[in-house]
Amino acid sequence: MGFDTSGLLPLSDALQGMLEQLACCCDSEQLPLPEAFGRVLASDIASPLAVPPFDNSAMDGYAVRLADLATGTPLIMAGKAFAGQPYQGEWPAGHCVRIMTGAPLPAGTDAVVMQEETQADGDRITFLCEPTAGQNIRLAGSDIGKGACVLQAGTRLTPREMPLLASLGVATVAVHRPLKVAIFSTGDELKPVGTPLAHGDIYDSNRYGVRAMLARMGCDCLDLGIIPDDPAQLRAAFIRADEEANVLITTGGVSVGEADFTKQLLDELGEIGFWKLAIKPGKPFAFGRLPRAWFFGLPGNPVSAMVTFDQLVQPALAKLAGQHFERPLQLQAIVAEPLKKSPGRLDFQRGIMSQGPNGLEVRSTGSQDSAVFSSLSRANCYIVLERERGRVAVGETVTVEPFGGLLL
């Protein structure tokens, strides 16, 4: 696979190297629209009709012909038009039609005058303005033309897209089947939540974060639990994941001093690269593939696991699932308190951004140790500090990346 195992690999190079090797591996299926929520479109959707499907009023008011207004005399109301109940009577000269928002325009309408710009005396309507042609009129197809592409393949269906498709009468859609991801944690020191801890034990927390992020992405999760540092059990877990899932994600066993046994096992089963990334937290990371499934090895430290998943695994899984992925929004903020930083690695510090008197401000959540998960739970953004940047003083400008999607 051409992995560079010397030195520290920049995050951008690692991400590009992965994405160049990946392609969608999920089949497609047709689903009724209500069942397709959260799925990724497998093909473009063209509008089967124009939106709006007919010329209609953008206001409550009166449909008029400009020639009838030229006399400057009041017009007689000929009738009324409502949404779903168009005016179908005759429209003699010197008359107007009372019309409600969304109602089809009577034939010959030049403009709609909003009711606030009129004065009614029984059926006699005086107009207090001089409308222009096309005023307050929504033309057929002005929003969406018939046959226009409204959603592209790779779009995940959210509450924004569902009513759009329903408004077009789209009853079924082609979507990708969910990506199936197997996960497990490694380490003899890990214990399930709800059980007592012996001296030297810790609770397995990483799987809960990974499972939650997979759920946010719409993946099917095969949770294999905690696998002890036992060759036979690890081998069995790797083989099962490879047979039953598209992807395997593990936490732990990829850092210096840990990776030798895991690396030996994975080298036997597939082709895996163990990387030292130029990021903090999250330097140890593994990527490659087993005979059938792709593999991602996350660090064991809780914050490192979440950061590497968020920055590397998330875009990789999106591509495997057939989804268009956009990098998170990055903003500029003023530092409200000093930040510790040593040059050498791109640093994703956990911060709290807020609106200050001079614009967007950000401050640290406290300890940035990769084992201190509370620093992430209190944060609402990453403070992204460049690789060669050192300490940051109050008042300096930094890049912040608001949490969204997976970590919100």
From TrEMBL:
Domain MoaB/Mog: 182-319
This enzyme's EC code(s): 2.10.1.1
Keyword terms, alphabetized: Magnesium, Metal-binding, Molybdenum, Molybdenum cofactor biosynthesis, Transferase
Pathways involved: Cofactor biosynthesis; molybdopterin biosynthesis
Enzyme class: transferase
Biological processes per GO annotation: Mo-molybdopterin cofactor biosynthetic process
GO cellular component: cytosol
InterPro entries, per database record: MoaB/Mog-like_dom_sf (IPR036425), MoaB/Mog_dom (IPR001453), MoCF_biosynth_CS (IPR008284), MoeA-like (IPR038987), MoeA_C_domain_IV (IPR005111), MoeA_C_domain_IV_sf (IPR036688), MoeA_linker/N (IPR005110), MoeA_linker/N_sf (IPR036135)
GO molecular function per UniProt: metal ion binding; molybdopterin molybdotransferase activity
Cofactors required: Mg(2+)
Biological role stated in the UniProt entry: Catalyzes the insertion of molybdate into adenylated molybdopterin with the concomitant release of AMP.
Similarity-based family: Belongs to the MoeA family.
PANTHER family: GEPHYRIN, MOLYBDOPTERIN BIOSYNTHESIS PROTEIN
Record-given protein name: Molybdopterin molybdenumtransferase
